[in-house]
Amino acid sequence: MAAPLGRSDGLALNELLEEFSRAQYRAKESGPKVEKIEKRCLELFGKDYCYSLIQNLNGELCGHYPRQIVVLEYESTEQEKDMFESTVQVSRLQDLVNRSKMARCRGRFVCPVILFKGKHICRSATLAGWGELYGRTGYNYIFSGGSDDAWADTEEIAEDSASVRNGDSQLFDKVRGHDIKLLRYLSVRYICDLMVENKKVKFGLNVTSSEKVDKAQRYADFTLLSIPYPGCEFFKDYKDRDYSAEGLIFNWKQDYVDAPLSIPVSLTRSLNIDWGEYQCWDLVKQTQNYLKLLIHIVNSDDDSGLLVHCISGWDRTPLFVSLLRLSLWADGLIHSSLEPAEILYLTVAYDWFFFGHMLADRLSKGEEIFFFCFNFLKHITSEEFSACGRKARKSSQPRESGFMLEDFCALKRKDRGSTTSLSSDFSLVAEDSPGVAAGSFNYETVEQSAGAQTQAAWRKTCTSSPQTVLWSRPQQLEERLLYPGVTEAKSSSSSSSNHSDNFLRVGSSPLEVPQRSLPGQTERESRLEAVRSILLTAYSNTIGLKSVSSSPSGAISGLLEQFARGVGLRGASAIV
User: Which CDD domains match (predicted)?
Assistant: First the structure.
């Protein structure tokens, strides 16, 4: 099991989240902070892999891709090198990237990001539509003075554009042909499309396309999977329900939703999932089943790679790329030497930040898909999500340190502070009462509240499900034994401060809390819970959670809001 989270690891993650939430990353606008994050990512990749780099220092290839794109070649151990080594040569790959980048939305070309059993797991945006493709080729031609190193055939493209306007498909043949060459060079066979639309339409125009509706069927040789998944806008509903994903079902009857789920039968036989019910799944079940499918694909016996994409490739795509990376890491199959804090840093920085996720914009709109990703880890701890064939090993080690919402909910009232003062560190809007607990608390977010009477009423009202939180704590006395060193939190001097040192402290580290030992956990469970715990700590310490209402009638809303204010993470009116 991993060593406890150190102060330096916690501070590094905090700094990363602060930079991430400030503004969208742009390759050409990097500074010392970005370079520091970039250097740390390369160090973490280098602990387990030999790799090459594709240079994108000023965003020449793509403005919202890493300045140094990592191409993993093989694991550092000689045994793994002999068994699973990528056949990709970076010089050839860079040439294909230069030629193919026009084929996809925003120039977000197919990029390998995970190496598993010698297979490349890739990400990208969807295919560019006629309007974007024609507009960008014309723009590049004009502003390059008639030549463009990133697109060697600009003059030919300009000539083909007239043909496109007359209904000819030569332009698409050219750019999508290069895209297909890149996919084949990376040995990609499976393409998983997360779009709920066949084509993205704005102002009556098709602004993007997708492989599944390519009229010339250029992608017919690939195994195409249409697995429609709600866009980032849907995650405002997740936030508005006090970060509860259970019972949250997407409305599939909306006019723009026209992409049905389509998966080859050969990939679904062994999964024991009723795919015909996908429109009835809540967000938890849908994400679980899609992740099972992706794990099944990459864990198959063939040597074929996988491409995952949505529209722009910076919301839903990093969600599933990150979950895949963390799930395979938890099984000990990739990044085997990284500790929980290290793999968390790597996936936040590389999979989300450096590939252009607009965290600041999403937070301002309440579209918290980033937070959902890591909070969702509690739903994939079981062995049904494991890519290992071996029996799961049990862990008798304490879980990783970290302050969790469940931890806060388990504290006695005197440890939380006053229920009336807004400046007290751990205030609650609602008193402990069976009626409030039964009517307002959500079981996904808070499994136990603070009083035996409330717990009894809660259990009578809510039934447990496989997707609920892992921790089960029947008695407060047990909590006090598990937390012998918890001290009372001091009152915050101001409820308007976004950052404060008045975080619950035990020992010398501001991020350290007493550890719990759960001897029945598998190693996979303990690893994923450690990652989730560390992220929740850092997220609460830098960004915070914003609930919809802090009125007495919304007990969980008040709990989240007062938790954020109480530890000095956010003022009364701040969103992030």
Answer: PH-GRAM_MTMR14 (cd13213)
Q: N- to C-terminal Cα distance for the chain?
A: 33
Report how far residue 338's alpha carbon sits from residue 335's, in angstroms, rounded to the nearest whole number: 6
At residue 520 the predicted structure's pLDDT band, cuts being 50, 70 and 90, is confident
Report DSSP state, residue 224. Answer: E
Which of 296, 287, 314 has its CA nearest to residue 227?
Answer: 287
| Residue 505: burial class (beta carbons within 10 Å; 0-12, 13-18, 19+) | middle
Map residue 69 onto helix, strand or coil: strand
Q: Which of 276, 271, 317, 293 is nearest to 124 (CA)?
A: 317
CB atoms within 10 A of CB 207: 17
Question: What letter does residue 255 receive in the DSSP assignment?
Answer: T
Specify the pLDDT at position 203: 53
For residue range 148-180, list pLDDT tens digits in order. Answer: 333 333 333 334 444 444 444 788 889 999 999
Other beta carbons less than 10 A from residue 267's beta carbon: 15
In whole angstroms, what is the distance from residue 161 CA to residue 140 CA?
Answer: 13
**Interval 239-249 mean pLDDT:** 96
In sequence order, what are the beta bridge partners of 120? 115
Whole-angstrom Cα distance, residue 385 to residue 400? 21
Sequence-distant (≥ 6) Cβ neighbours of residue 525 within 8 angstroms? 381, 382, 395, 470
Active centre residues (catalytic): 310
What are the pLDDT digits (tens) for 399-435?
444 444 444 344 333 343 333 332 333 222 233 333 3
State the pTM of this model: 0.72
The strand ranges marked E within 162-317 are: 188-193, 201-202, 205-206, 223-226, 305-309
Category of 412 on φ-ψ map: left (φ > 0), alpha (ψ -120 to 50) or beta: beta
Hey, what amino acid is at 72?
L
Integer angstrom CA distances of residue 114 from 172, 216, 331, 335: 29, 30, 15, 10
Beta-bridge partner residues of 72: 51
Largest pairwise CA distance in the chain: 78
Strands 201-202 and 205-206: antiparallel
